[in-house]
Each structure stands twice: as structure tokens, then as C-alpha cells.
Amino acid sequence: MSSKALIASMKNYVESISKAPLDILTECDSVAEDDEYEKKRQIFNTKFQFRPQVIILVSSTEQVSAVVRFVNEHPGQISLRVRSGGHDHEGECSATDAWLIDFRHMKEVTTIDASPQTKGRHIVTVEPGVIFREIKRRLDSKGWGIAHGTCGTVGVTGYTLGGGWGPWTRRYGMGCERLIGATIVLGNGDVVEVSDPDGAHTQKAELLWALRGGGGFSYGIVTKLVFEPFLLPEKLHSFSVRFVDANDKPDRPTVEILRIWEELIADGRYPQLIGTNLKIKAAHLSPGQNPDPRARLDATLYGYFDGPKEGITKLIKNNFGKDYEVKVDLSVQVGHGSVNGPGVGSLFYESFEAWDRIFQGSPSENGIQLEGSGPAPHKITSRLADPFVQRWPWDGFLDVFLFRGQRRRKGWGAHSRKALVNTLQSSLVIPDESKTRFGVQQYITILAIAGPFYQHYKQAGIGCAFPYRDRPFILQFQAWWNQFLDSNGKPVVGQEKEDQHGIINQAIVANRRWSNLAEDWIEACRDADIPGSGGAFISFKDDAIETNTYFADNFKRLCNIKANYSQDNNHLFTTRKTVFSERD
What we know:
- This protein has an eight-stranded antiparallel sheet with strand order 16-12-15-13-19-20-17-21. It has a five-stranded antiparallel sheet with strand order 5-6-10-8-9. It has a four-stranded mixed sheet with strand order 1-2-4-3, covered by helices on one side.
- Among the domains are: 100 residues, Uridine Diphospho-n-acetylenolpyruvylglucosamine Reductase, domain 2 (2-Layer Sandwich); 141 residues, Uridine Diphospho-n-acetylenolpyruvylglucosamine Reductase, domain 3 (2-Layer Sandwich).
- Helix 1 packs across helix 3, helix 7 crosses helix 16 and helix 8 packs across helix 11.
- It is globular, with a radius of gyration of 24 Å.
- About 7% of the residues have low confidence.
- The protein has 584 residues and is of the alpha+beta class.
- The protein is built from 16 helices and 21 strands.
- Strand 8 and strand 9 form a beta hairpin.
């Protein structure tokens, strides 16, 4: 059977089962459809230009189940992929010649107020096509929140299944911690609903545990998520602090800034700092020039603060000892009513930050505009800091006289900071004078995990598959280039529409020589010797890292769940970083 006939047969089968029309897109059926195919095939990382054989725009769980059953009837002929927000950094949400299940038609959000039937909990159910900027306004109107990331176009589903770091992590944990139920289509097409009241060690409990941070697509196709939201703080301020002098130059060694930031997030410190990260730009070294462990690099602290503006200034002054300019980018005033119906007061909570990137063409110089998070080619790698070194009064004596200064303590400490700062200085980093308006950006974002939530963490109920709850922060090395689109994929350059295409093409050509070096730098960062660090975070996927590294001590259990419960005998749920059973 030809590919075209096979696709037509699938469409007829799915429509007969679901009793509803199925939208599909294939290449070159007509000019109009071809244009629509071109728009819908693109994923967030524009480095990848995949061309799926068919894009299947499902509208229900029944249609997903029917597609899976059909594909099982043709083993070996069809490769499946699944896309929610399309933000997979390695492009594993799509592939050339694959059948792509696309969830953009499944965007229903349901909110249920607390009641005896919900055991006193507010409930939010989300279909898999929802992205964060679509759910936030709905939840903001009720004074509720669920953990989200820093980019509004990220899909809720992939974010949650990968663990889900974000501005709320210090107070409420990773996004997966508040996932209390899901609907999942297994590898044979069966539909299973799982929830946290399911008995421990049952099939359903094991599946839900795996979905709570065990990565996406390995165990089935999720078609609904159920969350328990939290109440938004009554006061909230988003702020940023750039550590520069009056001449806009970094004013102190980066290791000192990093050390102080680590003290801010340490257990027992500043619970009102809901979430924070530290962005440090990489610096160019001339050939033959050695890195300086006390280099002064361009660093910016970002954070969410629960309390008055004066508290932010006091926090910065007390810890950094200087009157740095504190930019308060977002102020929120939320009034909560009863548990059955919070009332919202003066609410200006529709925006949240793309903390980690500065986007050319954005009206805001500090990259706080949500609209700036547009698709762009990039490469990312990650690792996590080990728990902080515990220092004792006699450590200095032992280092100097017994170990001759060569001892490397286990855990993250001063030796780690110096190695990290050295890694951020390289001849592979683009010289400032060579950067164009759409130039390469190379930097690290250091993302706080440590805080009140995990300090007092008790793994209740079924627990959570995210394996790095004891790590204080994530190290995310990033390289981006040719950034010229907004969050809707529209150009943000050029005064006249007819000028935009030419300007963008010039930028692409000008930066080809630099993007190769930027990717080389990411490779070097991945392999760098940074003592007191290890592991990797699955949401910041890098195809050169072994799959088991992402899941650490939970990997074997996840493999067993894949084998015992996914019903995926034909290995339909397979990408480079999905979990495979040890029996396969």
C-alpha cells in the first residue's frame, strides 16, 4: 500500500471509530494546504527542519487511541511522534517521514472549585495542546496557579512530564509535584485513567509516578493532565539585578556573585524568594589566552519575591553590600476569597518572564517581554550541582598542611565555582565586536531548586520520578543564533514588511561561521571538568548524553514500568531519549 493510501485508510478508520472528522495535513496536496503544512511542521528549535509524512490534528482521546491501534496493524511501516508545544530542544517531538500526532486542537481547560467530592482540593484539568500563556489567564482570574516555566509558548504536557523547573520551584517544587492525575493511551491503544488515590504499587500508581518527571512519550501518549493548583500570593514582584558599575561594566569577580546567590537559595534562607535564577554571559578568549577564575563576567539575577518592593532592595543590599539598581518588572496584587471561590483584586499577572534570553527586537531591553520567546535555532546542555560542601573549622588546616591544597571535597563549593567560571571563558565564544544584531548568544542560566519545598520534602503517596530533588540548582549552558521571530513566529525586524525577508537572510548568512563555534562551545561545556556537578535535566535535552543519566537512580524502575505497563510491544513510543525496558 502506498503512503498516500495508508494515510487515507488511517483517516477513514479513525473517523469511523471516533465518529468525528479528523484533520490531517500532508505536503503538496494544494498550494493552500502546503502553506498550512509548512507553518505547522515547524518546531521551536528552528535548527531542525523536519518534514513529517503526515500531521494528524487529533481532537480527542478516542482519535489518539484509534491512530495508535491503526499503526499497530502496520508494524514497521510507520514511525510515530507526538507534539504539544513543540519545545523539545533536540526536536524529538517531530521527525522527517514520521506520522506526527499534533495536539493543537486539544486545548480545553477545566477548573473545579474545592468541594467534598474533590476532598477539599481545587482541581485543574488540561488537555495536551495547552501552552502556558493560554492557561495562565484562565487561572489568574481565579487567583490560582500551577507551576510554569519562563516561556509562555511551552506546552504544559511536555514541561510537566520532564519535571518542570520554573519561577515557582523554590516554594512549590518542580511542576510534576502537583500532577495528581492523567489520561494516557497505552501502546496497544487502550485508554487508562490514573490518579493519586490509586493504591501504591498498582499499575496505575506506577504509571502516574513515571509521568511525574520520568520524561515524555516513554510510557504512553498523555491526553489529559489533572493538577492541584496553589493560591497565588497576595503580593508578588518580579525583579532583576544586573551586577555592573556606573559604566555598565561587571564590578566584581563572578565567583563572588555566584557564592552569594548560592547563599540566598540555601536551606532556611529567604523563603519569600519564590524562585530565582542567575544568568552569566560567556566571554571570548583570544587564542593562547588562559581563563581567569576570578574573571568579571556579565551577570544578572532574576527573581520572584513574595512581599513589598522594599523587601527586594533590602535583600540585595544585605547580601551584596551595594545599592545595585533593582528593576521591578512585574507587580501583582491578588486578593483571595474563600476556599470555594477566591476573588481577584487588582490583577496584572498575565505576563511572566523569558528569564533566560534577551531577544533582539523586543521593546524591552532586559528580555522580560513574554512576546520575545520566539522560535530560534539553538543548542543546550545541562548538569546539576551536587549538594553543597559542608565546611568545618579545621578544613583550611587540612587543605594546606595535609593535602597541600589538592583535596577536592565532594559536593559543590569554591573549587566548583572557579571551574565553572573558567568554562565560561573560551576562544569558542564569539568576540563582542563580531556580534551582529541577530548574533550568537552564549551563556549559562543557573536555576534554583533548593528552597522551602525541598528542604522539608516528604515523599507522600506515590512519590515523584524526578531524581534530582536534593540538588541545589541546575546548570543550563545555552547557545542561540539568528533570533528574529516573536512567540507567534512573526518577524520582529525591519521597518517595512518587504525589508524583513532580506534582513533576516543577511543575518543568517552573517552568522553561519559563528553558529558552528557556538555548538562547539556547548560540546566543550558538556565535557568540562566541573567538580561537584553531574547528571542532566531531561527538559534541557542533549542527544549526546546517555538516557540513564537523566533519570539517575530511578532509571531501572522506569525501565520496568515501560516493560510491565506501557503495552508497547511494537516500540511505537520511541525517540532518542525515551526509556527502553532492560528486557528489550
